Amino acid sequence: xxxxxxxxxxxxxxxxxxxxxxxxxxxxxxxxxxxxxxxxxxxxxxxxxxxxxxxxxxxxxxxxxxxxxxxxxxxxxxxxxxxxxxxxxxxxxxxxxxxxxxxxxxxxxxxxxxxxxxxxxxxxxxxxxxxxxxxxxxxxxxxxxxxxxxxxxxxxxxxxxxxxxxxxxxxxxxxxxxxxxxxxxxxxxxxxxxxxxxxxxxxxxxxxxxxxxxxxxxxxxxxxxxxxxxxxxxxxxxxxxxxxxxxxxxxxxxxxxxxxxxxxxxxxxxxxxxxxxxxxxxxxxxxxxxxxxxxxxxxxxxxxxxxxxxxxxxxxxxxxxxxxxxxxxxxxxxxxxxxxxxxxxxxxxxxxxxxxxxxxxxxxxxxxxxxxxxxxxxxxxxxxxxxxxxxxxxxxxxxxxxxxxxxxxxxxxxxxxxxxxxxxxxxxxxxxxxxxxxxxxxxxxxxxxxxxxx
Length: 454
Known about the structure:
Blueprint: H1 24-35, H2 38-41, H3 43-51, H4 55-79, H5 85-94, H6 96-125, H7 134-151, H8 156-182, H9 199-202, H10 206-220, H11 224-230, H12 240-265, H13 277-281, H14 289-322, H15 342-361, H16 366-392, H17 397-419, H18 424-453
Helix pairs in contact: 1-8, 1-12, 3-10, 4-10, 4-12, 4-16, 4-17, 5-6, 5-16, 6-7, 6-14, 6-15, 6-16, 6-18, 7-14, 7-15, 8-12, 8-14, 10-16, 10-17, 14-15, 16-17, 16-18, 17-18
Domain Amino acid permease/ SLC12A: 29-451
Keywords: Amino-acid transport, Membrane, Transmembrane, Transmembrane helix, Transport
Subcellular location: Cell membrane
């Protein structure tokens, strides 16, 4: 999952269309590095297990859906540049309740993303220490991440750039080594699985498997809405669509190429949710260094994503409080301690604790549940982006049809989680959170209308 900066800043609509300092290609590369995360490194293994080689189609469909969402967001950014991005546009299109709902939905999704990252890091750490309980590792990473945020490490932003390079380099390393293995340059134990294009081999679990795997493909592209926020830093806001298109082309190539090599090197039933599919794919080759180097790189990158998400939810809640969408107490900061928003950080800490407790009670399924719920919440916001574009942008009939196609893909990914029993609980979690936000938004909206009349 993406290393996400603080969320819907200035959702009250203050104009921020000033001159930025970033070129379009810099935003593209930054987007690639920030989007790749443990959701791809580990979550894709669950997708392969559910749908086999057809996981490639899932990632291509997800790329199309992501392109539609970002393209509409970029167009709205070009016409009306705002730091609030998707939260601001939701409020502009449907009213304050929509901006409120998007902001809190985004906060909840980031909390679940932190839980997903914590669990992923714990699972990956068990590669070296399989006898250590999942919750022990989760607790350790949570404490370390909180310590970094509490101390306010000034150099962490620079470290984030390094971690993004490490993640991307890890995948490129796999693509190179796997290609050498596929063409026989590197020899391994056992034979390669037979290459077959029959329906049974490509879709071993049928349409149901492909359908239920879509959520993991979309989750790997998660963070595109944050690139919309970062588009405010472009020298020319009109370059936002170009930056997103190039970023998605690079991401899609990296994702599809690496997954294609993985399923070509080993049979789909060999993958599991306890290790990265790329480590599994090269497991039968005499490469003792690879699993350790690759696993270490993912853990370093995943921890950066965890800490960045913690920074994000902490600062996002402060912004929500300033805009009147959260209790005013969350605006307070400790001036004697580097302007630390302690109330906001405390609430985020409770979310981390809940994730650790969940890992203790449900060690077998917690990653799938949290990843599924986090992915669905992100898609709810993406749907808001498309719906907002319908009201804000003047589009031709073809543009409207493309937007409807995007909504259909998002709906397919969400409903696919209902089909698979092992991840269905994640759908219920997302539904519960959305229901709570909707109820609060309903009562808040009545208050806003009353205040407006007064």
